[in-house]
Design brief:
It is a single chain. The protein has 293 residues and is mainly β. Helices cover 14% and strands 37% of the residues. The chain has 4 helices and 16 strands. The strands form 3 sheets. Strands 13-14-12-11-15-16 form a 6-stranded antiparallel sheet. The longest helix has 14 residues.
């Protein structure tokens, strides 16, 4: 339902869409509210066309409408397979973030909710990002800033990423097909053990892991080192529902990286993965080739 106070903004958004004036450098945007005339309720269009980037709005006044349109083949099916995730910087303030859909505004982030830097994800079907400046007597110290990522709605181990479907994290084993796909397509995959269990009372926390083999990593989550200098060491966020035992069994550790943090995905015991992989290799059912020894 459209709130009465929102009507002028929605009208401005529709007009702004028609004019299609915007400022963008493809992946990230940095702008200033000082370009808005104080007596006008301006809405500026911002187009971002990458799978990840950032937005920084200095001295926020008026509002901005953020269009996330990745440079891919245009199809509704492609965007339907994605979630948008945003993470405010700790210093972000001066605005409220909404989802706008068919003239209705739904609050996503109040100004006070931005400082903790918590990740928030939503489906493009829920609406587009609409950022409204909070009226201030002094805007000189206000900056709204957040990072964004376009995240696949489904991938091997997606059920362990807590922000896609809050409250529905399920610590359950992955299927054989998902495990075989995870070792080939995850942001990281390796053979290792948990050196320390998750710490803290949150719904997820990082666990220290040591890898004897690193099959792949897209970003430098794991560093070469350790006590004897012959291991890869790093931290992986583990849901509180998944209890891990430090030491002991080796695991195939796979997962995804979001906003620089590693998240656990499919993680079968390594000896079970070896049996599965060798069986798939004999039948030609393995998506990629790795040295499992």
């Amino acid at each position: 339902m459209l709130r009465p106070w929102a009507a002028p903004w929605i009208t401005a958004v529709l007009l702004c869409r028609a004019v299609a004036q915007y400022s963008s450098d493809q992946c990230s945007w940095r702008g200033s509210g000082l370009s808005h005339e104080s007596h006008r309720r301006d809405v500026e269009q911002v187009y971002l066309r990458c799978s990840q980037g950032s937005l920084e709005w200095l001295y926020p006044t008026g509002a901005i409408f953020v269009n996330l349109r990745p440079n891919t083949e245009p199809s509704s099916g492609h965007m339907a397979a994605l979630h948008v995730c945003i993470k405010p910087y700790p210093h972000s303030q001066g605005s409220r973030v909404y989802l706008e859909r068919n003239g209705d505004l739904r609050m996503l982030l109040a100004e006070k909710d931005q400082a903790p830097g918590t990740v928030h994800c939503f489906s493009p079907a829920e609406g587009a990002l609409f950022v409204e400046a909070v009226p201030q007597g002094d805007i000189s110290r206000r900056t709204t800033a957040f990072q964004y990522e376009l995240v696949p709605s489904q991938w091997p181990g997606a059920h362990l990423f807590p922000y896609l479907h809050p409250g529905l994290v399920a610590c359950k084993p992955c299927s054989d097909d998902d495990i075989l796909m995870a070792v080939c397509t995850s942001d990281f995959a390796g053979r290792g053990i948990f050196r320390g269990g998750p710490s803290g009372a949150d719904d997820h926390s990082p666990a220290v892991v040591t890898l004897s083999r690193l099959f792949r990593q897209k970003t430098s989550v794991f560093a070469w080192g350790g006590a004897r200098g012959r291991r890869w060491v790093g931290r992986i966020n583990v849901p509180a529902q998944c209890r891990v035992q430090p030491g002991g069994d080796e695991y195939l550790l796979t997962g995804s990286v979001h906003f620089g943090d590693a998240w656990l995905g499919c993680a079968p015991r390594y000896r079970d993965f070896q049996k599965l992989y060798l069986t798939a290799q004999k039948t030609g059912g393995n998506p990629c080739e790795i040295d499992t020894d």
